[in-house]
Design brief:
The protein is an alpha+beta fold and 390 residues long. Helices cover 29% and strands 17% of the residues. The strands form six sheets. Strands 11-8-7-12 form a four-stranded antiparallel β-sheet, with helices on one face.
Length: 390
């Protein structure tokens, strides 16, 4: 019995040592620039801004639109999570960040690190505001807990604390003209925790929000935001800090074969670049008459190319109106036919009217004599003497 228990313990220990580590600790995310390029191209345009490199600019947005405005906040296992109502989805709010370019307006700078929301907070007690983190922000594998990040006043969106959770932000937003006053009197917070290699968002404490609202904050599943938590990429790297946005060298369309400024959809790039030029192949080489037998098809495959190449060569050397059967090409080139040239003189020696008229009983008289001397008349019964001698 003791021996059996010892063997079981050894097997259990071996299985524990050989079992793989948890996926969350080893899986790294590597979302290429081409993924974002093709996903967002139908909803905007990709432009190159001198301060940020290759960025995306949405089109057909409402007047006064800005990031983290068209949506709502919910609380998940990863902290305060943004639920986007914009037509392009939530990726620009969970990867990378936004910046305001003077010539383009709001543009999105791509990144490959996932977070529930890339924002810095401002809490006044009665109002809560947030703004996108600048593109120069970096975090470590332990997260970010440094000084509060200072964002521009106009980039903040404020709502009453009582309407912070669940409400459509567009319907409860405070007048942007009050941003300067609220930012000055508020407490700015920037906090990102990293647990199991996944970024989690800080912000106002849930307990304070529940106290102000007078109701508990219900935790919801992350699927409500139509996104999924992704571990921090570059796990094997030795870098002490990870930028929120991709390096400029990774945001060049020419670096990825799937990215092209001329193709806004993945299937256009496939049609234009991946299919080689069609080669001319004789149809008889691949397809035969439906009624041919197997032996006939075999004989056709053995000798297809001579027939296909001989016919075009004859057409190029000889015009269509001079072509003769293939059995007489030497006669046409070596000696011209003589019969065709000998017949015309024989046709014109005799007038056509003489060939058609019947032969005359008497030879015709010359034209001069026919006028001066009429043809002799036969004696009739009136010119000679009658029976009475008259």
């Amino acid at each position: 019995m003791k021996r059996l228990v010892l063997i079981s313990a050894i097997l259990l220990t071996a299985m524990t040592l050989l079992s793989p580590a948890p996926a969350a600790a080893n899986v790294s995310v590597n979302i290429g620039f081409s993924f974002f390029f093709n996903e967002l191209a139908p909803y905007g345009e990709w432009v190159r801004v001198s301060d940020y490199g290759e960025v995306w600019r949405p089109r057909q947005v409402a007047v006064g639109w800005q990031p983290y405005l068209n949506g709502r906040w919910c609380y998940t296992d990863y902290g305060w999570t943004w639920v986007s109502f914009d037509p392009w989805g939530g990726d620009p709010y969970h990867y990378g960040t936004w910046a305001f370019a003077s010539d383009w307006g709001w543009v999105w700078v791509p990144g490959d690190i996932w977070a529930p929301a890339w924002v810095t907070w401002c809490d006044t007690g009665s109002y809560i505001g947030w703004a996108p983190v600048p593109p120069n922000v970096s975090i470590s594998y332990a997260g970010y807990s440094g000084p509060a990040i200072v964002a521009s006043t106009r980039s903040y969106v404020f709502v009453p604390t009582t309407s912070f959770v669940g409400a459509d932000v567009r319907t409860v937003r405070v007048d942007p003209e009050r941003n300067a006053t609220l930012v000055t009197g508020g407490r700015r917070i920037t906090s990102f925790a990293v647990t199991d290699h996944v970024v989690r968002t800080g912000g106002p404490p849930v307990s304070r929000i529940q106290k102000v609202m007078g109701a508990p904050v219900r935790k919801v599943n992350l699927s409500v935001a139509k996104t999924s938590a992704a571990p921090i990429g570059k796990m094997a790297g030795a870098a002490k800090s990870l930028p929120v946005v991709m390096p400029r060298s990774e945001r060049v369309p020419g670096k990825s074969p799937a990215v092209s400024r001329a193709a806004t959809r993945p299937e256009a790039a496939v049609r234009g670049h991946s299919r080689p030029e069609a080669k001319a192949e004789p149809p008889v080489r691949h397809k035969g008459p439906p009624h041919e037998t197997k032996s006939q098809a075999q004989a056709r495959r053995e000798q297809p190319l001579q027939v296909a190449k001989a016919q075009p060569q004859v057409q190029r050397e000889q015009p269509a109106h001079e072509m003769k059967p293939q059995s007489q090409p030497p006669a046409r080139h070596e000696q011209p036919p003589q019969v065709a040239k000998a017949q015309p003189p024989a046709r014109h020696e005799q007038p056509p009217q003489e060939m058609k008229s019947p032969p005359a009983a008497h030879p015709p008289a010359p034209q001069g004599e026919s006028k001066a001397q009429p043809p002799p008349k036969k004696p009739d019964k009136h010119e000679g003497p009658d029976k009475n001698g008259r």
